[in-house]
Amino acid sequence: MPEFILKAQLRKLKTKKCNGLREKDIIPAVVYGHDFKSISLQVPYTEFEKVFKETGESSLINLGIDGKTPLKVLIYDIQYHPLTNKIQHVDFYKIKAGEKITVETELKFINEAPAVKNLKGILVHNLDKIEIECFPEDLIHEIEVDVSGLATFEDAIRIKDLKISPKIEILQDLNEVVASVSRPQAEEEEKPAEEQPAVEEEKPAEEGTDKKDSTESEKR
Questions:
Q1: 6 beta partners
Q2: pLDDT tens per residue across span 137-161
Q3: I want to staple 151 with a disulfide (CB 3.0 to 4.6 A). Which of 11, 107, 114, 189 is the partner?
């Protein structure tokens, strides 16, 4: 597994007074962990964004602070601006040697499902992450899901079917469906032409009414 390196500097300003840093494309950050005193940091926006695209939130990062020995950390939380969606703050979690960690690991779907290719079905991703627990040295960046076994609409890939190291514990229901193929959407049936409303026939005048009108005319 490749090593990911991110450089950071100690930060003296409090988070509430960091707008000046953000304007310079610097992200306020903090690193904390079990039995570890938290440290306020700042990291270059472009460098963090590049590392984050490669690692996500489930890969270890070597966080070098002011050129000192790097700390093994995970990206624990990211805060975004509600309007611009730019990163406003980052939380790093320092990993303790010999202590298991719990993360959500991305699923990477590979190959093509025969039910999609031959039967024109639609591949359905029921999950895009699964929660795992392991020691830091056994952590994986992503889990591959081979969909080439989905030959019919009745086939499904479940968590228990994934090829994962026995050193990694899955914290979800093993029978949960990861991927399947649904039938193609049926074309809408042609709607029947709208029926024209029937023309009502004129009703003949009532007999009693005709006699009454004739009598009144004679009297005149």
A1: 63
A2: 899 889 999 999 999 999 999 999 9
A3: 114
Q: End of a domain among 47, 75, 96?
A: 96
By DSSP bridging, strand 87-94 and strand 4-10 are unpaired
Q: Mark which of 64, 81, 96 sits at the end of a domain.
A: 96
**Distance in angstroms (rounded) separating the CA atoms of residues 126 and 176:** 9
User: Does residue 54 sit within a domain?
Assistant: yes
Contacts 24+ apart (CB under 8 A), 23-30: 27/87, 27/88, 27/89, 27/90, 28/88, 28/89, 28/90, 29/89, 29/90, 29/91, 29/92, 30/89, 30/90, 30/91, 30/92
The rounded distance, in Å, linking the Cα atoms of 198 and 176 is 57
Same domain? For 58 and 127 the reply is no
| Element at 114 (helix H, strand E) | helix 114-117
Number of Cβ within a 10 Å radius of residue 105: 22
Which amino acid makes up residue 87?
Answer: I
pTM across the whole model: 0.69
C-alpha to C-alpha distance for 96 and 81, rounded to whole angstroms: 31
